[in-house]
Structure formats: C-alpha cells, structure tokens
Specification:
about 240 residues; mainly alpha; 10 helices; about 60% helix; about 0% strand; globular
C-alpha cells in the first residue's frame, strides 16, 4: 500500500489530532514546546497547513488551555460527587483536588495557572474570563452554596481598601452571573464587597500555597507539605466560621 499523499496527510490532521499532539508536547516538554512547527513535525505535515485550523500559536495555545480547564473541572466534579452535598465538604474537596491535580499535572498547571494571561487568542474575545470557564464555574458554584447556606464570618465592606473597590465590584457582578447561571437560588445581598474580598483572599491563599509547592519555592525545607496544606485549609475554615475539614 502506498504512503498517503501530502494532501491526504493534511486532511487527516484533524483538529483533534492537532490538540492531542499539542497536549502530548505540553505534558512531555512544557508550554514552550507547544509550537506549530513542532506539531507539524509530529504529524508529518507542513507548519503552514496548521493555519487551516488555527490562526496562530497563541490561538492554538488558548484552545489547549481551555481543554485543560475542562479536564480539571471534570476531575473535580468526580471528587465532589463522593462527598456530602453540604457545600463546605465539597468546597474543601475541590481545594484538595486542585492541589492533587496540580502536583500530578505540573506542565498543564504551568500553562493554565502560571503563564501570562489575557487576550491570548488571535480572534477577538477568544480568551474567556476565568469565572466563565469550567474550573471557575465549579469552584464558584460550590462556594456559592457555602455562602447561601452557611453563616460565615465575612469582613464588612468598609474594610475593603478604596483603591480596589472598583475591581471587586466588576468581579462581584461576574460572580453573581455565574451563580445565577448555575441554577443556585443565591441571595444577591449575601455577596457584598466584603464577601467578594474574602473570596479573592481565599483563592489567593489556596493558589499561592499550591504554586509554591508545585515549583518547590517554599522559603524553608518542608518535609511534609501535605500537613502544611491541611493546616492552611483548617486555618481558612476557622477564620470564616466553617467546620474544620
């Protein structure tokens, strides 16, 4: 049987083939290895042929990032399906699942959570807001259930620094839209600026801890980082008035 023609190979390089190859390069070598030239070489086609599917490397990387986010959300959905539906248990299951995923998918974590973000794609509006993506939705919907069902110790709006109130107000509107879309009967008055501020701080501490662990950047040697992580979650729970996970 003769080898496929170049045109046949181009036709065989479907969008799925391209993304699968890009993901393999990402996992094996990291985000910088995901180039149109490298993908074309793996598929046995010319780099210009890939422009039939993606307008630029940034366009492809943005779609790859969204694929990774969707896979992460699927994994976390499986995690929370195995714990009580009390909001708090699911929230901390997501936190623990996020850490586990980051430590076992370090290259994907680097692409999605440790690379510059913004309008990455070449098409206008192709970079989605984080709160509108699968991971953001599952995290925020679970946090919304906690806010709706628990009496949390949230800071008053007056403590929010004036310089960041406009930023938080925009994020607050995005959060309310996500919570409404999730089907949760969420009272809007529970999401004031103080509560929005608290959510940002919660995420910053979770993300900061995981990032330090993934890249080995603790300021001191830590023999048991899992214990430190559990202690951090317990501190967060205690500070906002949730049962210790």
């Amino acid at each position: 049987m003769s080898n496929p023609t170049r045109r046949g190979r181009v036709r065989a390089a479907t969008d799925q083939d391209i993304r699968r190859t890009a993901r393999a390069l990402l996992v094996e070598h990291g985000p910088e290895a995901v180039t149109l030239r490298a993908i074309a070489r793996e598929l046995g086609i010319t780099a210009p042929a890939l422009y039939r599917y993606y307008g630029s490397r940034d366009d492809l990387v943005e779609h790859l990032r969204l694929d990774v986010c969707a896979d992460l959300a699927t994994e976390l959905a499986e995690d929370i399906s195995a714990v009580p539906e009390d909001g708090a248990s699911q929230l901390f299951a997501i936190c623990k699942g996020f850490r586990r995923w980051a430590l076992t998918h370090t290259k994907e974590f680097t692409l999605v959570f440790a690379s510059p973000t913004g309008n990455v794609g070449s098409a206008p509006g192709s970079a989605l807001s984080r709160v509108d993506e699968p991971f953001g939705r599952i995290f925020l919907a679970t946090a919304g259930r906690v806010l709706a069902t628990q009496n949390l110790a949230t800071p008053p709006s007056e403590v929010v620094p004036p310089e960041i109130r406009d930023d938080l107000a925009g994020f607050q509107a995005d959060l309310l839209a996500v919570l409404r879309d999730s089907g949760l009967a969420f009272p809007a008055e529970k999401l004031d600026l103080g509560t929005t501020y608290l959510m940002i701080q919660f995420w910053a501490r979770l993300y900061g801890h995981v990032t330090l662990e993934v890249f080995g950047n603790y300021p001191i040697p830590v023999a048991k980082p899992d214990v430190l992580f559990e202690a951090m979650l317990a501190d967060l729970a205690r500070e906002i008035g949730l049962p210790i996970p």
